[in-house]
Write a structure and sequence with these properties.
The chain is built from ten helices and ten strands. The protein is globular. It has one domain: Rossmann fold, CATH 3.40.50. The N and C termini lie far apart (78 Å). The strands form two sheets. Strands 3-2-1-4-5-8-7 form a seven-stranded mixed beta sheet, sandwiched between helices. Strands 6-9-10 form a three-stranded antiparallel beta sheet, with no helix packed on it. With 319 residues, it is an alpha/beta fold. Helix 1 crosses helix 2.
């Protein structure tokens, strides 16, 4: 009996020690990460000062730099918000995962904008809410799997309506349909991911499916979203003009057409080029590094909506 009690006490003591060690490791990691991010923010500020002094761009890619964005979008955004008069310094971004990489986090922390971020993963939202920056800035994080039926109510329920500064859409699926459905906010700038695998000759998008999940729709992860042409046509319908894309050919940029006068860019419409990103997977989830025409061949039997006539067609019959 005495030996058993000793073992229990020893086990409790060792568990206590392990918890302390784990807590110290987490705190050290958190402090190290925060120190790295502080340094990144300082470098971002230096880059921002340089790009805002550029009077004329040949293309958006000349303004690119990265702090928290996956690509060079932090720089593009800084250039645009310093050239375009934006009264309401607010943003909405959905499809942010845990917000480690995003288009608006640098905007939140460098420019102190107010924002709403949305993701379909509860754990991702919990990670955001437990971060040091969540209490430091005016950020609202909401767990919701966005579709055309709930997007407007989600925005209104969280106090976002009317004029805002930026809307960033990256949900790897129904991007076209959700942007089309949004009616309660009027952003000055819209950033929307497009699927360069779909090319630039056709206005096409994946059929609307409220439960669309990229990997489940096709193991390759290549079947999602809409072509750049489709987004440009939708933008025009909504009163926006296409001004270019990032150099990775992933995110397209649109601004309200009456704001074009504030930008001095030689080419508002870039020559189309396919992204170099090689993220394709096999059936077991392993990277296959497909590029060029081999990517469209991989998903050639999947169907898309041809928006020119609203017909459902196989990719192999239109590409």
């Amino acid at each position: 009996m005495i030996n058993s009690l000793k073992k229990i006490k020893k086990g409790m003591f060792m568990g206590y020690i392990r918890n302390i060690i784990r807590s110290l490791k987490n705190r050290l990691f958190s402090n190290s990460l925060r120190a790295i991010e502080v340094n990144s923010l300082l470098l971002g500020k230096i880059n921002t000062r340089q790009i805002v002094n550029i009077k004329k761009l040949n293309s958006l890619k000349e303004a690119e730099f990265r702090v928290f964005s996956q690509w060079g979008d932090d720089g593009i955004i800084q250039y645009l918000i310093n050239k375009i008069p934006i009264i309401n310094h607010t943003f909405v971004e959905f499809g942010v995962e845990d917000y480690t990489e995003s288009n608006t986090r640098y905007l939140l922390m460098n420019d102190n904008w107010k924002g709403l971020v949305i993701d379909g993963s509860y754990s991702n939202i919990c990670n955001i809410k437990s971060s040091y920056y969540y209490w430091m800035y005016d950020l609202t994080a909401v767990c919701s799997f966005i579709d055309t039926d709930n997007i407007n109510n989600t925005l209104l329920d969280n106090g976002f309506k009317g004029d805002i500064g930026i809307l960033s859409i990256d949900i790897d699926g129904n991007d076209y349909w959700v942007w089309k459905a949004i009616s309660v906010i009027s952003p000055c700038i819209v950033i929307c991911e497009f699927n360069s695998v779909f090319g630039d000759q056709h206005s096409i998008t994946v059929p609307y499916n409220p439960s669309f999940q990229r990997t489940e729709e096709h193991y390759s992860n290549l079947y999602f979203g809409a072509s750049l042409t489709a987004l440009k046509e939708l933008a025009s319908e909504k009163g926006y003009s296409f001004i270019g894309a990032n150099s990775s050919s992933v995110n397209a940029y649109f601004i309200k057409s009456d704001l074009l006068q504030y930008l001095d860019i030689d080419h508002f419409d870039i020559d189309y080029y396919s992204s170099k990103c090689r993220e394709s997977r096999d059936r077991d989830g392993n990277l296959t590094f497909l590029s060029g025409a081999s990517r469209i061949k991989e998903i050639s039997k999947k169907s898309v909506i041809n928006l020119s006539n609203n017909e459902l067609v196989l990719l192999k019959n239109i590409m």
